[in-house]
């Protein structure tokens, strides 16, 4: 017989409208009591500690701290709950979540998919797989060796350390790995910049994002940066103002 006991849930999403929509969908599913709604990681952590929800519906991309940071905090404080990620950005999370066997929902959330996710939770509620899943995800977060990018025909995994520079191509982005190899991904350069945030990349112009690990020279006279990788030289145009900003950033490291 299906377990029909009430499940305690919490929503963490920085968008009020998204929180309200998900709340209404949860009420439609039945058997759910909402213990709270949070607009940030810190607020979410506070409510988890206070209310002990069994499921946390967690947005991935949020300002200041993302959803993965909340997962790290759950581990730090030994808080056991099942995380179901909710994201509009498939390129950020879906493959990592699949590999870690977590549930995830894509925005706009479908009622049927939400109901199926809760059903899966109820079916697995009695086993101890949730903690093991979190261990796998945390291990992956600690070693972000590759990022999944969508392409015109599918997707590709790329190590950030292999990227020399990225170049805007209207709504797409060319990711240059060498003189002879580049990959075209179906997100704009601003989105790529977000995906590489916190790594050694700098937006040297509106059209170019460079890996500063390969930077050997910046010249304000020629308004360019010189990158060097495996005996190959790359010259990237750069405004003087951005060259000065990059210099200040590198001197602080």
Structure description:
With 253 residues, the chain is an alpha/beta fold. The chain has 2 domains: 7-142, 3-Layer(aba) Sandwich (Rossmann fold), CATH 3.40.50.2300; 147-252, LytTr DNA-binding domain (OB fold (Dihydrolipoamide Acetyltransferase, E2P)), CATH 2.40.50. The protein has 8 helices and 15 strands. The chain has helices spanning 16-29, 41-51, 67-76, 90-99, 111-124, 129-142, 189-195, 240-252; strands at residues 7-12, 32-38, 55-59, 82-87, 103-106, 147-150, 155-158, 165-169, 172-176, 182-185, 201-203, 208-211, 215-219, 224-229, 232-237. It has a 5-stranded parallel beta sheet, sandwiched between helices. Strands 10-9-8-12-11 form a 5-stranded antiparallel beta sheet, covered by helices on one side. The longest helix has 14 residues, at 16-29. The radius of gyration is 21 Å and the shape is elongated. The relative contact order is 0.09. The model has no long low-confidence stretch (mean pLDDT 84).
Run of helices and strands: EHEHEHEHEHHEEEEEHEEEEEH
Mean pLDDT: 84
Percentage of residues assigned to helices: 25-40%
Largest sheet, in brief, is: 5 strands, parallel
Low-confidence stretches are none
**What is the rounded Rg?**
21 Å
CATH-defined architecture of the largest domain:
3-Layer(aba) Sandwich
Counting DSSP E segments of at least 2 residues, the number of strands comes to: 15
What's the domain count?
2
What is the fold-level CATH name, i.e. the topology of the largest domain?
Rossmann fold
Number of distinct helices: 8
Strand order of the largest sheet: 2-1-3-4-5
Strand proportion: 25-35%
